[in-house]
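Example 4.3 (complexes with small molecules)
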Amino acid sequence: ARDVRISPSILSADFANLERELDAINNADWAHVDVMDNHFVPNLTLGLPVVESLLKVSPIPLDAHLMIDDPDRWAPAYAEAGCKSVTFHVEAAADPKKLARDIRAAGARASMAIKPNTPWEPYADLLPELDMVLVMTVEPGFGGQSFMAEQMPKVRAVRESIRTHGGDVWVQVDGGVSAKTIEQCAEAGADTFVAGSAVYGAESAAAAIDELRALAAG
Ligand code: DX5
Ligand code: ZN
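Answer. The structure with D-xylitol-5-phosphate bound is encoded below.
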C-alpha cells in the first residue's frame, strides 16, 4: 500500500465551533487551514490570530494554505506560530526560493502551490527548496467545486520531477477530492490529499477520512 496523508479542509467546517470541528477529524494526519485575503482570491476566511487559537486546541498538526498576496511578507509568521506545513502560491510570491528557505528556517515544511492555469515546468528547479508541491484541482477560493481531472498530467509531471531530483517531496492535491476522485490522484502520483466537503459533508467525518485513506493507499 502507498504511504498517504489525509488533510481535511476546515473551510467546510462550522466556523462557530472550530475546536469541536478539529476534534471531529482527529484521525486525520493534518488539518488543512485555508487562509484567503479577498485579493489573491475573491473570498475572505481567517488569518493569523485565528490560526494561533486553532494551534492551541488542534489534536493534529496544521497545514496552512495561504491564498494571499505578498506571501513573502506573511507566510513565515504562520511557521513561527507553529503551523508544521506552510503553503504559499507561486503566482503571488516575489522570491519563491527565498520564501521557501524562510519558511523552513522558521521550522515548518515549505510548500508551493500552483493554480490550474499555472504550468509546473518553470518552477521545477525550486524542488530542492520544497517539502511539498500543491497542485490545485479547482480554482482556489471556494469549497465544493468540481474536480478538474485535466490537472492529472501536472501531478504526473511534478512526481516525475521529484523522481529525477531524488528528493522526498510530497505532492498534495486540493479541490474536489472525494471517494470518486481520490484514486486517480493517487495513481497520478499524489500522496497528500485535501478534502473539505467530502469530509465535513459526510455523516461521519472520521469514517470519511478512513475511507479516503484506504482508497488513496490502494
Ligand atoms: C479551495 C481550498 C480548498 C477547499 C477544498 O480554494 O483551497 O482547500 O476547502 O474544498 P473541497 O474539498 O470541498 O473542494
Ligand atoms: Zn486549500
